[in-house]
Amino acid sequence: MQLMFFAKLRRPAGVGTLGGVVALCMAAWALPANSAAVCDGAQNVRLLRPVEVSAEQRARFQAMPPLKVVAVSAPPMARYDEDRQTYSGIGIDVFCFITRELGLSFELRPDRDETVADKIRRVQEDRADVFIPLSHSAQREQRGLFTLPYYESHYAVIARHGRRVFIRGLEDLANYRVGIVQGVSFQPLVQKIVPAERIHMFNETTSDALFQAVRDGTIDVAVFNKNIFIEKRYRQEFFDLDIIHTLHELPRAYRYYFSRSPGHESLVRVFDRYLAAIDVSASIMEHEEGERYFFERYIAQRDQRVLLQAASVAAVMLALLSGLALLRYRRLTKLLAERNTHIQRQQEALQEAYKKLQTLSRTDGLTWLSNRRHFDQMLAHEYARYQRTGEPLSLLIVDVDHFKNVNDQYGHAVGDDYLRAVADVLRNSVTRSTDQVARYGGEEFTCLLPDTGADNARAIAERIHRGVAALDLPNASVEPPRLTASIGVATIIHGDPGAQALVAQADAQLYAAKQAGRNRICATVIG
Fold first, then answer.
1. Would you place residue 212 in the very low, low, confident or very high pLDDT band (cuts 50, 70, 90)?
2. CA 259 and chain centroid, separation
């Protein structure tokens, strides 16, 4: 099935009102029923600032034939819906938004029987115009054109639950049988590290065979995109597989991959200008939905069982109506009403439990700040936004000085009270809704500050430092004999060092503060 999306429809000249209605009806019949559905998510994308495109450029783009687009199911960037027979995802939302802005039309071809390598080759051989989504490699760039990135993720090492596999870095992969999808940009690096006889290539139209090989023991581990696996794990119930290591040293930025056809270079340049000026946070929240999908499906299955129960009760009631008196009928009606009320309460309780579970999965149980998992998600999101907008991004790492002495002298219950008090200081010091405060682990906290330069980040750090001192909590075995904190600050203002570089620099500044005697702030600027 082929889907065509039109940026706009014009009524032909000379067609009257009735003729126009008939023509539009015929056009609607001729298009696939869900051709517009492919672009439902464009509303999740917004411009942070205007993008200037000349009238000459717009006219040239609108005169182009429909772009032939191929995609691969890689949620949350692109996900194939079997029911609607089309794709949705972050990459689709952004592509629809930009093409709509430029008045371009495109054909999105499912082509589910082709592998990733097949689809990339079609773009490189000019048999298709665009591939969604793809990470950059020098080899691919020789035969195609990459836009700026719109989404960042990492590779992860995946193993069966309970299997004794120890991975601390790339070099440890050499000790195991490793499976990867053929043609991914990570392939040359794996081939350098892992002996050839231990590498298993999977060139299937989906990644299911790769994960099945891990489950049945054909291979020890799979190396695969972390966010895509999380989505697949919940959608396809791979609950016996776990992510055992994230390869933070290998961030993957996903882009659009154009063929080198005439006119595409100027189109890619305009795409880059839009990608640098858009906010896709709503699209990311919409499509990073693995856990939500799992619970929605569970609720739907529960509702089906409830409906079957209600239907059974109704059938029994109808069978008895002919032989029962009015009093019996009223008793059954009352019983059915009570059962329906009970079922409704069960549904409401399940929905409420789902909401609480969502909150708990992002929250530290002691301080009620965000936890490490939620911080990692927001760091990736805010760093991707920094890449698009160029606005500075700051990170504070706050460490409570001599906290072990607190636990040793006063007990862990008092230590927990101290941590909650420090968490309150952070909440009161970092007040913008866009900022993110988290418990990073133990006595360490983080403050992620988007659109915040070095001076403002330093001012917030000083506010936190004063707030901790103002608590005046005793710590008698150290000097000074009260609770203090050391803070490391890092601000990115230019370049693309990677999100983990921001964490590493803030941590290095925290270490410098500790080495200099604690109870102080050290800061640096990257770029």
1. very high
2. 27
CATH code, domain with 443:
3.30.70.270
C-alpha span between 520 and 480 (Å, rounded) = 13
For β-strands 521-526 and 485-492, DSSP reports them as parallel
Last residue of some domain: 333, 361, 389?
A: 361
Q: What are the structure tokens assigned to 60, written together?
A: 């040239």
| Nearest partner of 176 among 165, 185, 168, judged by Cα | 165
- Which residue range is the domain that position 186 belongs to? 152-251
Q: Residue 95 maps to which CATH number?
A: 3.40.190.10
Residue 367 domain-assigned (yes or no): no
3-state secondary structure of 28: helix
**Of the candidates 395, 399, 436, the residue with the CA atom closest to the CA atom of residue 512:** 399
Report the b/e string of 154-173 with b at 16+ CB within 10 A. bbbbbbbeeeebebeebeeb
Same domain, 309 and 351: yes
Model's pTM, two decimal places?
Answer: 0.50
The reported pLDDT for the residue numbered 29 is 35
- Please give the C-alpha separations between residue 280 and each of 41, 233, 387, 440, 459, in angstroms, as whole numbers: 11, 24, 12, 26, 29
Give the tens place of pLDDT for each residue, 445-492.
Answer: 999 999 999 999 999 999 999 999 999 999 998 989 999 999 999 999
